[in-house]
Amino acid sequence: MTTDGGQAATGLPTDDLGTERALILGLGRRGGGEGATRFLAERGASVFVYDSLPATELAATLRRLADLANLDLSLLGTRVEDLDLDGWDLVVRNPAIPVDAPVLDALRARNVPIETEASLFIEHFPGRAITITGTKGKTSTAFYLHHLLGGGEGGAEVGGDGSDGGDGSDGAVDVLLAGNMGGSALEALTGRTADSIAVMEVSSFQTETIAERGLEIPIACLTNLMADHQDRYLKAGMTAEEGLASYWAAKAALFANQRTDAWRVHPADLPNQLLADAPARWFCVFADHPEAEGAAWIADGAIHLRLLGAADTTVEVLPVADLPVEDPHRQENVLIALAAALLAGVDLDTLRRRLTTLPVVPHRMEPVPVDGPTVWINDTAASAPSAAAAGVRSRGATGSLTALSGGAPKGLPLQPLVDAYLATGCNVVLLPGEESARLASLLDDAGVAYDGPFDTMADAVAAAATTGTDTVLLAPGCSSFGTNGYPGFEDEFDRGGQFVAAVLRQHGIAVSDRLAARLRAPRRRSIAAEIERATADDVDLTT
């Protein structure tokens, strides 16, 4: 998405940034800041790296950047308030820094372009970037779309492309799965062409900058809007409704700069004010709608499509039973991916074939491959109460259930999760965390029995194993971090990886530190594939 004359929208040359001074505002440890640092430095920029953490706590990241000569680390471990804000030609903010932070407002007043790693990627990507946002379902939708476009197994490394849609007959397709999944998409720019397609998951923290930079997205998808991130968007003096509206507006900002020949894919139940100025054509999902130019929905046990521009023509795609996805809320993700793939040009017969081989998505309703009467499921990504409640209701409808829940506060009401427990009659095991104490109080009031909170995942899994239910579901409904002296996890993927490792060990599978680290990765292969690729030193099946 470069402009004429070899200039990216940043105003910086795409082949060489010369002596431009760039500031990385928050290096972080998830890979985005690292990727942006390398991307700019390798193109000639003098890159200054800021983070509130000292160099000692960023050692692993800094070791990987040690080969860069034009890197200044003197700002590490300092206060953002003490930064000299003059003389910068480009700033790349960590998404954890709010878009309205005083330091960013001061930089805007100096006319300094502010980017994120995601917006930099979109600006420099020569092909089409299909973006996916929403409160929940972003990653699953991205994995499914990557597969439907011909990207092969969704668990490929960041930057990996695929040439096989699953049956070996679909031809070479240069499709990239990237975005808010760990690692850096910028590492995958080399070798991409105008025919390449990038499937990008983006958070509200990234859509804000995509909109601010005026980037045009050819196909933009929004999965849903629920309550989340009110610890960020609910400002002092706001009502709860205003905080929620601010968060939702950040999501819908993805549509702001689309062209009239672009596409937006989303359900019909979005607040009207969010779409008042959306210029792109609309493909409706989950139901048909007379104002949409196309639609995809589920009815009578099958997926249906209304073809583009054909108001009275619908086709049945395939029975829902043919999908390798059981949960209704994740079948909605399939509909969004199907719509986007159709808009990207994949023919319906190919889509029918690929829909039957959708990949397992790490950390999202992910079964743990162990023997025994109980099904163990890792849904660590369900960090909002409404998302965890959806999983509890889905699995609770199929048999007896134990839910592992709790963690750190997100500023969201827990009642939807409590209501799901009551509706399904499930057992509850509480994880470590500050919010677990509040959840326990609500459970006491509702008359719901529970075990815990436990200080470790291993203890929580051991307690769940004694319940004898048909399913044990990791359904946190809370953030993963330790807060105010309460124990926690490094992030949601660490939480999910610890759950999987504990379940494997509970079933007599010894897991080494190296395999445990693989299981904690945001983007990895399936659990079975990770075990299979492990060496004899990684995992040993005991007798």
Task: Break the fold down into its secondary structure elements and pairings.
Blueprint lengths: L20 E5 L6 H10 L4 E6 L7 H6 L6 E6 L13 E4 L8 H8 L4 E2 L1 H8 L3 E6 L4 H11 L26 E5 L17 E5 L2 H9 L6 E4 L7 H4 L6 H13 L10 E5 L4 H4 L5 E5 L8 E6 L2 E5 L7 E6 L8 H17 L3 H8 L10 E2 L7 E4 L6 H12 L4 E5 L9 H10 L2 E4 L3 H13 L3 E2 L5 H9 L5 E4 L17 H15 L2 E3 L1 H7 L7 H7 L5 E3 L2
Parallel strand pairs: 1-2, 1-4, 2-3, 4-5, 6-8, 6-9, 7-8, 9-10, 10-11, 11-12, 16-20, 17-18, 17-20, 18-19
Antiparallel strand pairs: 12-13, 13-14, 15-16, 21-22
Helix pairs in contact: 5-10, 6-8, 12-13, 15-16, 16-17
What features would you describe in this structure?
- This protein is of the alpha/beta class and 543 residues long.
- The protein has 3 domains: 21-115, Rossmann fold (3-Layer(aba) Sandwich), CATH 3.40.50; 119-355, Mur-like, catalytic domain (UDP-N-acetylmuramoyl-L-alanine:D-glutamate ligase, 3-Layer(aba) Sandwich), CATH 3.40.1190; 366-541, Protein-Tyrosine Phosphatase, Chain A (Alpha-Beta Complex).
- It contains 18 helices and 22 strands.
- A 9-stranded mixed sheet has the order 7-8-6-9-10-11-12-13-14, covered by helices on one side.
- α16 (492-506) packs across α17.
- The radius of gyration is 23 Å and the shape is globular.
- Mean pLDDT is 88; it is low at 2-14 and 153-170.
Q: Which terms would index this structure?
A:
Protein-Tyrosine Phosphatase, Chain A; Rossmann fold; 18 helices; 31% helix; alpha/beta; disordered N terminus; 543 residues
Binned, the helix content reads 25-40%
**Could you say what the CATH architecture of the largest domain is?**
3-Layer(aba) Sandwich
Uncertain regions spanning at least 5 consecutive residues: 2-14, 153-170
Report strand order across the widest sheet: 7-8-6-9-10-11-12-13-14
